Amino acid sequence: MEYLDFELPIKELEEQLDKCMIIGEESDVDVSETCKQIEKKLTETRKDIYKNLTAWQRVQLSRHPNRPYTLDYIKAICGDTFLELHGDRTVKDDKAMISGLGKIGDQSYMFIGQQKGYNTKTRQYRNFGMANPEGYRKALRLMKSAEKFQVPVVCLIDTPGAYPGIEAEERGQGEAIARNIIEMTRLKVPIIVVIIGEGASGGALGIGVGDKVLMLENTWYSVISPESCSSILWRSWEYKEIAAEALKLTATDMKKLKLIDEIIREPAGGAHANREKTFEIVKNKISSHFEDLKKLSPKELVNQRMDKYAQMGVFNG
Predict the structure, then answer these.
(1) With contact defined as beta carbons under 8 Å apart, do 201 and 223 qualify?
(2) Per residue in 27-85, pLDDT tens?
(3) Helix (H/G/I), strand (E/B), else coil: 115
């Protein structure tokens, strides 16, 4: 397990607990009471740290190296039922965008999401979770297939942004994202969006229009990253913490501004601390929201979705 700077008190207590247990196993000394005290302190410390996180600390948690990625969620939620589908039928298959069919119970879903890598080799292979235009066109092709066969869509967002390279611009990055946004607003099947990590800029919006938009507790959703915002305003990354606060990018801020529908609480210590429990929570949320959405006709779905997004940013002075 890797630890962030503010998680170091947890690391120290966990190491103390491990040593205490080893002493108890290797000697006749009764250390059960000491272990209980350390465990109690560990629980309290974990609770205190995660209860008072700053916006920047939540950004750091969303990028935690042990945090589960899109494929982790899909494999845990769907098991062997997931069938990955490839390519946009125009350019190539974008490895940064995962798409395919999978089941939760007896219900089929079209899963779409950005995938980051676990190490240097896989990060390069997945282009660090930054999709090219063909990734967004692949996503749209499969959303249209889902609509044809009346299969609900689940989008898992985790990206530092759409790929900003010259070749991406040449192939129409902006148009591909804009096309996805307009097509998703009028898709005639339920769309459930879950932000599981970073939700940055148009890269996130390209698969981010939904009937229900959910955010895990330690994620962020914004037009720009705190580092980029800091470098534009102050010509330096030094002010990224101030930028994170000003951008109002946390799940709590997003809910307050009515830009998302629900915050998904993570297990104590974050999604990376208890992956199995996180998968179970997300799985149940997807199923429960689909149960509500499936009662609506295609026309009602589209009208509600249109109304929802039309009301965003409306100000009554």
Answers:
(1) yes
(2) 877 888 888 899 899 888 888 888 889 999 999 999 998 999 999 999 999 999 999 99
(3) coil
Across 39-43, 90-94, 184-188, 248-252, least confident range:
39-43
With a CB cutoff of 8 Å and minimum separation 6, the contacts of 19 are none
Give the CA distances from residue 5 to residues 12, 57, 283, in Å, rounded to whole numbers and listed in that order.
12, 9, 31
Distances (CA, A) of 297 to 190, 292, 293: 10, 11, 9
Q: Round to whole Å and give the CA distance between 52 and 55.
A: 10
Token pair 């000697």 is found at 27
Alpha helices in the chain (DSSP H): 8-26, 32-51, 55-62, 70-78, 120-125, 133-148, 166-170, 173-185, 201-205, 226-234, 240-247, 251-256, 275-293, 298-310
Is the Cβ–Cβ distance between 251 and 234 less than 8 Å? no
Rounded Cα distance, 68 and 141, in Å: 26
Cross-strand bridge partners of residue 108: 103
Q: How far does Cα 242 stand from its chain's mean position?
A: 23
Contacts 24+ apart (CB under 8 A), 242-247: 244/54, 244/55, 244/56, 244/59, 244/220, 245/54, 245/55, 245/56, 247/55, 247/222, 247/223
β-pairing, 83-84 vs 97-104, is antiparallel
Per the CB < 8 A criterion, the answer to whether 50 and 217 are in contact is no
Strands 212-216 and 191-200: parallel
**What is the mean pLDDT of the segment spanning 272-295?**
95
Cα separation, 230 vs 234, whole angstroms: 6
- Residues near 285 by beta carbon (within 8 Å), at least 6 away in sequence: 194, 214, 262, 264
